Amino acid sequence: MAHINLTSIIKNRYLITTIVLIIIFDLLYTIFSDPPRSNEQLPPGTVQSGLIIRKRPDGIIDTGRVMKHCDMKSNLVENCLEYLDKKEDEYIVNPPSPIPQCNEDEPPMLFHVFWRGMITDKLALQMKSFLYTQPLECSKLYVWLQNSDTDIDLNPFAGNLYNKFSPKNIEFKKWDTKEQLDSDPLYNGWEGIMSRHGSVSFSDLVRFVVLNRYGGMYMDGDVLFLRDMRPLYNSGIDFSYKWSYKSEYNTAVLRLHANGTTSRKIISQAMLNKMNFHPFEIKNYLLANTSVSSDSANTKSVYNPQLYMYSVPLFDPLWLKNDHRQNNNLSPNLNGMDDVWDPNFIPNEFPNVGNLSNYSPLDLRKADNFFRGAYAYHWHNNWSRKLFPTCWMGVMNTAYDTFINGTRPNIYGEYIQSS
Ligand SMILES: *[C@@H]1O[C@H](CO)[C@@H](O)[C@H](O)[C@H]1NC(C)=O
Ligand SMILES: *[C@@H]1O[C@H](CO)[C@@H](O)[C@H](O)[C@H]1NC(C)=O
Ligand SMILES: *[C@@H]1O[C@H](CO)[C@@H](O)[C@H](O)[C@H]1NC(C)=O
Ligand SMILES: *[C@@H]1O[C@H](CO)[C@@H](O)[C@H](O)[C@H]1NC(C)=O
Ligand SMILES: *[C@@H]1O[C@H](CO)[C@@H](O)[C@H](O)[C@H]1NC(C)=O
User: Fold this and answer.
1) Which SUPFAM superfamilies match (predicted)?
2) How far is the CA of 304 from the centre of ligand 1 (A)?
3) Angle at Cα 264 formed by Cα 213 and Cα 92, nearest 5°?
4) 288 lines ligand 2 (CB under 6 A)
5) What is the mean pLDDT of residues 374-392?
6) Which residue out of 125, 131, 403, 405 has the highest number of ligand 5 atoms within 8 Å of its CB and is therefore the one to mutate?
7) Which residue from 2, 271, 273, 315 lies 20 to 30 Å from 371 (Cα-Cα)?
8) How far apart are CA 18 and CA 9, in angstroms?
9) Is the pLDDT of residue 342 over 50?
10) CA 93 to mean position of chain CA atoms
11) Is the per-residue pLDDT at 25 higher than 60?
């Protein structure tokens, strides 16, 4: 049990006075400052409801420095997240060659998601997390739809997003297997393979097809964007991340360059293997035609330069704890994938708060305090869970909605342009 020595804190009157003054100043500022005009931006470092406004990054990620703190063989998830949250000055570095400017003259940062069926509140949640975090002057999300809404503007969850952000930031696109696979001789013979093997997994396939054709970054529909992706996106490398503690890829997050060596190699190998794009096959494809076999010790040095396998915390901060591989103390201190849907507190969710029954979840659950440092949060399926307003996902949803309707800034202190 943590024991806080209250007496020693109270004795430190200077600290108390300073804290009280900061709180008073913050309150006065909130009460007397004008409501922000649209498009106004709070300066980085501002404390907004107790949380620190982040500055937009202006460089690329130094993978070596990040992995020194984030390799799970020698670090804990919480140490990795703390490094990612606090040490941007150290790991965001100047790019060796110029990266795209964020304006309409340069190609946008392009994201993709594939969805089968009607658009639900969960897919809308992901789309909103994209709007809340990415720089909207230079970001676009392609939503690839199969057997989905014919009138997206009438969809209860996506209608407003369609009217407000399509086509500038979100493009809803109909997935057409034939048109896509006929577009590149790489897929020659696909019709025969598909008719012989009815089990080809579409969602595993689509991400490679669209990334090879258009380039960009694929995010599964159950992955929330938490931070500006540009430092990763513009780093010049193709990447994905690790499947929990296994040495396999999880392609729920996948960055590939259009028609690149890596994407062509994976696709051509998959074509030789019944169009099997299952994540556990990808490593074998990258090792094909090399002298290294998949069970030898130095496979990493062969697959990483082709498709960098980031560690789990960057995109999936709860996974190792969920799988009982690390006994993490996280913020929020959840235990398993189900917990983000729970409208009530999880025991010990806020280890620094003595008695949770003196609070209600909305007092303590704040969107900007959700796994700070991580670039994404992968919630792993759970498509049919109810989005209670007081569960963590509900808290995120409300933050997104109030940002989109112009009444609250995002984590970068920006207010959305009112239209
Ligand atoms: C992709 O690259 C290959 C060789 O690297 C080239 O032959 C092919 O024409 C390219 N395809 C497209 C669609 O640019
Ligand atoms: C790579 O290996 C496969 C067999 O795994 C073979 O069919 C293919 O022709 C090889 N490709 C190259 C470029 O050597
Ligand atoms: C926590 O607070 C509640 C309500 O204030 C009280 O009933 C309960 O006894 C407290 N529990 C502990 C462990 O202090
Ligand atoms: C939620 O996801 C977790 C992890 O995949 C799974 O164990 C659990 O059964 C799911 N719960 C529901 C209600 O879908
Ligand atoms: C903005 O959205 C929030 C959350 O849904 C809602 O509570 C609030 O009333 C909305 N405000 C306006 C001005 O539409």
Assistant:
1) Nucleotide-diphospho-sugar transferases (SSF53448)
2) 23
3) 75
4) yes
5) 95
6) 405
7) 2
8) 13
9) yes
10) 21
11) no
